[in-house]
Amino acid sequence: MSKRLYAGNLHFDLTDTALQQVFGHVGGVEKAEVIKDRATGLSRGFGFVEMMTIEDGEAAIAELDGADVMGRVLRVAPAKPHEPPRRGRSAAYETGIE
């Protein structure tokens, strides 16, 4: 079983490999990916890391959340499940905001 983590506030020059190395100091990493803008190919400043075990994921959150990586304060949290975009009525309509 793996633990998928969100890594935010990444330096824009951080690569997938460098992100994997940062998390690899804490535990086993299955995959690390910096999310890139489709149009420009540049980093969007966040990514996702899949740790080998739940324990490795918990250790990564404890050790790396708030750590300085390339001059930026890293934010690490459990990744939320991906939700497909809403179709149809606007979110404002559904919440009663006009």
Textual characterization of the structure:
By secondary structure, the chain is of the alpha+beta class. It has one domain (3-78): 2-Layer Sandwich (Alpha-Beta Plaits), CATH 3.30.70. Helix content is 26%, strand content 32%. The protein has three helices and six strands, in the order βαββαβββα. The chain has helices at residues 16-24, 54-64, 91-95, and strands at residues 3-8, 29-36, 43-51, 68-69, 72-73, 75-78. It is globular. It starts with a strand and ends with a helix. The mean pLDDT is 90.
In short:
This protein is α+β, with helices and mostly antiparallel strands and 98 residues long. The chain has one domain (3-78): Alpha-Beta Plaits (2-Layer Sandwich), CATH 3.30.70.
Poorly predicted parts:
none
CATH class call: Alpha Beta
Helix content: 25-40%
Number of helical regions:
3
* Tally of individual domains: 1
What do we call the CATH homologous superfamily? Answer: RRM (RNA recognition motif) domain
Question: What is the radius of gyration computed over CA atoms, rounded to a whole number of angstroms?
Answer: 16 Å
**Mean pLDDT, all residues:** 90
Largest sheet: 4 strands, antiparallel
Order of helices and strands: EHEEHEEEH
Alpha-carbon distance between the termini?
44 Å
Strand tally, please?
Answer: 6
| Structural class label | alpha+beta
CATH architecture label: 2-Layer Sandwich
